[in-house]
Design goal:
With 213 residues, the protein is an alpha+beta fold. It folds into 2 domains: 8-43, no CATH class; 66-212, no CATH class. Helices cover 44% and strands 9% of the residues. A 4-stranded antiparallel β-sheet has the order 1-2-3-4, with no helix packed on it. The longest helix is centred in the C-terminal third of the chain and has 23 residues, at 166-188.
Length: 213
């Protein structure tokens, strides 16, 4: 039998059927001499799953820690960060960023890379504000959005930024923020390093005596 221009013909392994592929659609046509009355079968190509247009976490229920973060912030406000409560304040900061890092690691999300970069960060901001609710994290994400928007508008913006999936960039920043909180705790306890000397006196040195020295 004849084959239309641009079509591909191949045998399917069934001696009585010939497969013809036209524009991505495969049609199995009985060969001459096959049983009469057999209708051709059509197999449509499988459609690809659309890319995520908003942050999603693989179908799991959205986990939230915003209540826990709000409680930690309320406790922070009762402490004097530059007085006798400095050590407790630093420890609470470290606990908070450990909680945020663990939550984000256990609840990854995706944002379509096909979206404009500023829109990607806008969606991340809405997601984190609803599920985490940490002002410092929100402020950092908004900076990423503003930088992306400025660059898209042709405005030079020298503030730090990185390419790549928003989740990966975010996790790198959160890890660094957690390490910073740990370094401050160690410094306040007199556990300094050559790169981060502590003055060796713990939190007592952060009171009025510290400035006198």
């Amino acid at each position: 039998m004849g084959v239309a221009p641009g079509a591909r013909a191949s045998h399917s392994g069934d001696a009585t059927a010939l497969q013809i592929q036209v524009a991505g659609v495969t049609i199995a046509v009985p060969e001459p001499g096959a049983a009469r009355g057999a209708a051709p079968s059509i197999r449509k190509p499988t459609a690809r799953a659309p890319m995520a247009s908003k942050p999603r976490n693989n179908g799991r229920a959205t986990a939230r820690i915003d209540t826990q973060i709000a409680e930690m912030r309320a406790r922070e406000e009762t402490l004097e960060p530059f007085g006798g409560d400095y050590g407790a304040h630093c420890g609470l900061q470290l606990d908070k960023w450990r909680l945020i890092h663990r939550h984000l690691r256990e609840n990854p999300f995706q944002v379509s890379m096909a979206l404009p970069r500023a829109e990607q960060w806008s969606r991340v901001h809405r997601h984190l504000r609803a599920t985490v609710g940490e002002p410092e994290l929100d402020a950092w994400v908004l900076v990423q959005r503003d930088v992306a928007q400025n660059l898209a508008d042709g405005i030079r913006d020298m503030r730090p930024r990185k390419n790549g999936p928003c989740y990966d960039v975010l996790m790198e920043w959160v890890r660094d923020r957690k390490r910073k909180a740990l370094a401050v705790v160690q410094w306040s306890q007199g556990k300094g390093t050559p790169r981060r000397p502590s003055f060796g006196g713990g939190s007592a040195n952060l009171n009025g005596n510290f400035h006198e020295k």
